[in-house]
Amino acid sequence: GAVVSQHPSWVICKSGTSVKIECRSLDFQATTMFWYRQFPKQSLMLMATSNEGSKATYEQGVEKDKFLINHASLTLSTLTVTSAHPEDSSFYICSARVDRVQETQYFGPGTRLLVL
Amino acid sequence: GEDVEQSLFLSVREGDSSVINCTYTDSSSTYLYWYKQEPGAGLQLLTYIFSNMDMKQDQRLTVLLNKKDKHLSLRIADTQTGDSAIYFCAENKIIFGKGTRLHILP
Residue A102: its pLDDT value, please? Predict the structure, then answer.
Protein backbone atom coordinates (compact mmCIF):
# COMPACT_ATOMS: atom_id res chain seq x y z
CA GLY A 1 0.00 0.00 0.00
CA ALA A 2 0.90 3.66 -0.09
CA VAL A 3 3.65 4.75 2.28
CA VAL A 4 3.67 7.93 4.31
CA SER A 5 6.64 8.91 6.44
CA GLN A 6 7.04 11.44 9.21
CA HIS A 7 10.15 13.05 10.56
CA PRO A 8 11.14 13.21 13.28
CA SER A 9 9.51 10.26 15.01
CA TRP A 10 9.95 11.93 18.36
CA VAL A 11 11.22 15.25 19.61
CA ILE A 12 11.87 16.84 22.97
CA CYS A 13 12.14 20.59 23.11
CA LYS A 14 12.20 23.44 25.58
CA SER A 15 9.17 25.60 26.14
CA GLY A 16 9.14 28.58 23.79
CA THR A 17 10.95 26.92 20.92
CA SER A 18 9.43 25.98 17.57
CA VAL A 19 9.30 22.48 16.19
CA LYS A 20 8.83 21.44 12.57
CA ILE A 21 7.36 18.06 11.65
CA GLU A 22 7.58 16.75 8.10
CA CYS A 23 5.09 14.47 6.39
CA ARG A 24 6.04 12.86 3.10
CA SER A 25 4.21 10.59 0.70
CA LEU A 26 6.95 8.27 -0.54
CA ASP A 27 5.50 6.52 -3.53
CA PHE A 28 2.60 8.66 -4.63
CA GLN A 29 1.53 12.24 -5.03
CA ALA A 30 -0.89 13.54 -2.46
CA THR A 31 -2.87 16.62 -3.29
CA THR A 32 -4.39 16.55 0.16
CA MET A 33 -2.78 15.79 3.47
CA PHE A 34 -4.34 15.86 6.91
CA TRP A 35 -2.84 16.65 10.29
CA TYR A 36 -4.19 15.03 13.43
CA ARG A 37 -3.40 15.28 17.08
CA GLN A 38 -3.90 12.43 19.49
CA PHE A 39 -3.86 12.70 23.27
CA PRO A 40 -3.13 9.61 25.35
CA LYS A 41 -5.93 7.06 25.25
CA GLN A 42 -8.02 9.33 23.09
CA SER A 43 -9.15 9.48 19.51
CA LEU A 44 -7.61 11.47 16.73
CA MET A 45 -8.55 15.08 16.44
CA LEU A 46 -8.35 16.56 12.98
CA MET A 47 -6.37 19.77 13.16
CA ALA A 48 -6.25 20.88 9.54
CA THR A 49 -6.55 19.84 5.94
CA SER A 50 -3.61 20.75 3.78
CA ASN A 51 -3.94 21.16 0.03
CA GLU A 52 -0.89 21.52 -2.18
CA GLY A 53 -0.32 25.09 -3.26
CA SER A 54 -2.99 26.66 -1.11
CA LYS A 55 -3.59 27.66 2.48
CA ALA A 56 -4.53 24.99 4.93
CA THR A 57 -8.06 24.74 6.25
CA TYR A 58 -8.07 24.62 10.03
CA GLU A 59 -10.68 22.99 12.21
CA GLN A 60 -12.55 25.05 14.73
CA GLY A 61 -10.53 25.69 17.83
CA VAL A 62 -7.13 25.11 16.21
CA GLU A 63 -4.93 28.20 16.22
CA LYS A 64 -3.52 28.68 12.74
CA ASP A 65 -0.79 31.03 14.00
CA LYS A 66 0.25 28.41 16.51
CA PHE A 67 0.25 25.45 14.16
CA LEU A 68 1.70 26.56 10.83
CA ILE A 69 1.09 24.21 7.93
CA ASN A 70 2.86 24.35 4.62
CA HIS A 71 2.10 22.02 1.73
CA ALA A 72 4.93 22.98 -0.57
CA SER A 73 4.79 20.07 -2.96
CA LEU A 74 2.69 17.05 -3.85
CA THR A 75 4.80 14.88 -1.60
CA LEU A 76 5.56 17.08 1.38
CA SER A 77 3.57 18.86 4.05
CA THR A 78 5.05 20.39 7.19
CA LEU A 79 3.54 21.27 10.54
CA THR A 80 5.38 23.80 12.66
CA VAL A 81 4.41 24.14 16.30
CA THR A 82 5.44 27.67 17.14
CA SER A 83 6.46 28.76 20.64
CA ALA A 84 5.67 25.33 21.97
CA HIS A 85 4.36 24.92 25.50
CA PRO A 86 3.96 21.79 27.64
CA GLU A 87 0.27 21.58 26.74
CA ASP A 88 1.32 21.10 23.10
CA SER A 89 2.92 17.80 24.05
CA SER A 90 1.08 15.18 22.08
CA PHE A 91 1.24 12.62 19.31
CA TYR A 92 0.92 14.27 15.91
CA ILE A 93 -0.09 12.13 12.96
CA CYS A 94 -0.34 13.08 9.32
CA SER A 95 -2.16 11.29 6.57
CA ALA A 96 -2.31 11.57 2.82
CA ARG A 97 -5.29 10.96 0.64
CA VAL A 98 -4.59 8.62 -2.21
CA ASP A 99 -7.83 8.02 -3.99
CA ARG A 100 -10.40 10.75 -4.33
CA VAL A 101 -13.14 8.25 -5.01
CA GLN A 102 -12.55 6.02 -2.03
CA GLU A 103 -11.23 8.88 0.06
CA THR A 104 -8.82 6.44 1.63
CA GLN A 105 -6.20 7.96 3.85
CA TYR A 106 -2.83 6.43 4.57
CA PHE A 107 -1.26 7.49 7.81
CA GLY A 108 2.25 8.33 8.80
CA PRO A 109 3.81 6.65 11.85
CA GLY A 110 3.31 9.74 13.98
CA THR A 111 5.59 12.18 15.79
CA ARG A 112 5.67 12.26 19.55
CA LEU A 113 6.34 15.77 20.85
CA LEU A 114 7.34 16.44 24.42
CA VAL A 115 7.70 20.05 25.48
CA LEU A 116 9.58 20.58 28.71
CA GLY B 1 -23.24 16.96 14.72
CA GLU B 2 -21.69 13.90 13.22
CA ASP B 3 -20.46 11.34 15.70
CA VAL B 4 -18.94 7.89 15.82
CA GLU B 5 -19.28 5.73 18.93
CA GLN B 6 -17.51 2.54 19.88
CA SER B 7 -16.83 0.61 23.06
CA LEU B 8 -13.52 1.48 24.63
CA PHE B 9 -12.24 -1.92 25.68
CA LEU B 10 -12.54 -5.56 24.64
CA SER B 11 -10.84 -8.56 26.16
CA VAL B 12 -10.69 -11.83 24.19
CA ARG B 13 -8.93 -15.16 24.64
CA GLU B 14 -6.35 -16.14 22.08
CA GLY B 15 -7.94 -18.22 19.35
CA ASP B 16 -11.42 -16.84 19.91
CA SER B 17 -13.17 -14.36 17.64
CA SER B 18 -13.18 -10.65 18.45
CA VAL B 19 -16.10 -8.46 17.49
CA ILE B 20 -15.69 -4.71 17.68
CA ASN B 21 -18.79 -2.60 17.20
CA CYS B 22 -19.27 0.95 16.01
CA THR B 23 -22.23 3.23 15.43
CA TYR B 24 -22.22 6.35 13.35
CA THR B 25 -24.62 9.17 12.65
CA ASP B 26 -23.88 10.43 9.16
CA SER B 27 -26.22 8.59 6.83
CA SER B 28 -24.46 10.04 3.80
CA SER B 29 -21.25 8.12 4.51
CA THR B 30 -20.02 6.57 1.31
CA TYR B 31 -17.22 4.50 2.76
CA LEU B 32 -16.61 3.31 6.32
CA TYR B 33 -13.19 2.34 7.55
CA TRP B 34 -11.43 0.30 10.18
CA TYR B 35 -7.96 1.34 11.28
CA LYS B 36 -5.54 -0.39 13.64
CA GLN B 37 -3.12 1.46 15.90
CA GLU B 38 -0.36 -0.46 17.61
CA PRO B 39 1.28 1.06 20.71
CA GLY B 40 3.20 4.21 19.91
CA ALA B 41 2.52 3.91 16.21
CA GLY B 42 0.42 5.60 13.59
CA LEU B 43 -2.71 4.20 12.08
CA GLN B 44 -2.85 1.35 9.63
CA LEU B 45 -5.81 1.01 7.32
CA LEU B 46 -7.20 -2.47 7.90
CA THR B 47 -10.19 -2.55 5.65
CA TYR B 48 -13.08 -0.51 4.39
CA ILE B 49 -16.58 -1.13 3.15
CA PHE B 50 -18.65 0.70 0.60
CA SER B 51 -21.99 1.84 1.94
CA ASN B 52 -24.01 -0.26 -0.51
CA MET B 53 -22.45 -3.47 0.81
CA ASP B 54 -23.65 -5.52 3.77
CA MET B 55 -20.54 -7.56 4.31
CA LYS B 56 -16.93 -7.70 3.30
CA GLN B 57 -14.50 -10.47 4.14
CA ASP B 58 -10.74 -10.22 3.94
CA GLN B 59 -8.88 -13.24 5.33
CA ARG B 60 -9.48 -13.19 9.10
CA LEU B 61 -11.41 -9.92 8.96
CA THR B 62 -15.15 -9.65 8.38
CA VAL B 63 -16.89 -6.31 8.22
CA LEU B 64 -20.65 -6.14 8.65
CA LEU B 65 -22.63 -3.02 7.84
CA ASN B 66 -26.21 -2.36 8.87
CA LYS B 67 -26.94 0.88 7.12
CA LYS B 68 -30.47 1.12 8.49
CA ASP B 69 -29.20 1.08 12.08
CA LYS B 70 -25.94 2.87 11.16
CA HIS B 71 -24.01 0.04 12.78
CA LEU B 72 -20.63 -1.25 11.69
CA SER B 73 -18.74 -4.19 13.12
CA LEU B 74 -15.34 -5.76 12.67
CA ARG B 75 -14.90 -9.45 13.40
CA ILE B 76 -11.39 -10.86 13.77
CA ALA B 77 -11.35 -14.64 13.55
CA ASP B 78 -8.79 -16.72 15.46
CA THR B 79 -7.52 -13.70 17.38
CA GLN B 80 -3.76 -13.68 17.88
CA THR B 81 -1.52 -11.78 20.28
CA GLY B 82 -0.40 -9.62 17.37
CA ASP B 83 -3.96 -8.36 17.09
CA SER B 84 -3.58 -6.48 20.38
CA ALA B 85 -4.06 -2.84 19.42
CA ILE B 86 -6.56 -0.04 19.36
CA TYR B 87 -9.10 -0.26 16.57
CA PHE B 88 -10.74 2.86 15.21
CA CYS B 89 -13.76 3.01 13.00
CA ALA B 90 -14.16 6.09 10.85
CA GLU B 91 -16.71 7.54 8.54
CA ASN B 92 -16.58 10.15 5.84
CA LYS B 93 -12.82 10.30 6.05
CA ILE B 94 -12.35 12.48 9.07
CA ILE B 95 -14.69 11.44 11.85
CA PHE B 96 -13.10 8.84 14.06
CA GLY B 97 -14.48 6.91 16.98
CA LYS B 98 -12.53 6.96 20.24
CA GLY B 99 -11.06 3.58 19.53
CA THR B 100 -11.53 0.12 21.05
CA ARG B 101 -8.57 -1.33 22.90
CA LEU B 102 -8.38 -5.06 22.16
CA HIS B 103 -6.65 -7.08 24.84
CA ILE B 104 -5.75 -10.71 24.18
CA LEU B 105 -5.85 -13.16 27.06
CA PRO B 106 -3.58 -16.22 26.93
Answer: 57
pLDDT value, residue A38: 84
Q: Does B99 touch chain A (CB under 8 A)?
A: yes
CB of A10 closer than 8 Å to CB of A115: no
Chain A residues touching B96 at Cβ < 8 A: 43-44
* Mode of pairing for the β-strands spanning B61-66 and B55-58: antiparallel
pLDDT at B55: 95
Detail the DSSP E strand segments found in B7-99: 9-13, 18-24, 31-37, 43-50, 55-58, 61-66, 71-76, 85-91, 95-96
Cα–Cα distances in Å, from B4 out to A17, B10, B18, B22? 36, 17, 20, 7
Minimal-distance CA residue of chain A relative to B97: A43
pLDDT, tens digit, for every residue of A60-102?
Answer: 899 999 999 998 888 999 999 999 999 999 999 998 886 665 5
- With a CB cutoff of 8 Å and minimum separation 6, the contacts of A57 are A48, A49, A50, A51
Q: Using CA atoms, how far apart are residues A33 and A29, in angstroms rounded to an integer?
A: 10
Of chain A, the percentage scoring pLDDT greater than 70 comes to: 91
- Which residues between 41 and 60 in chain A have a beta carbon less than 8 angstroms from any beta carbon of chain B? 42-44, 46
Mark yes or no for CB contact B45/A44 under 8 Å.
no
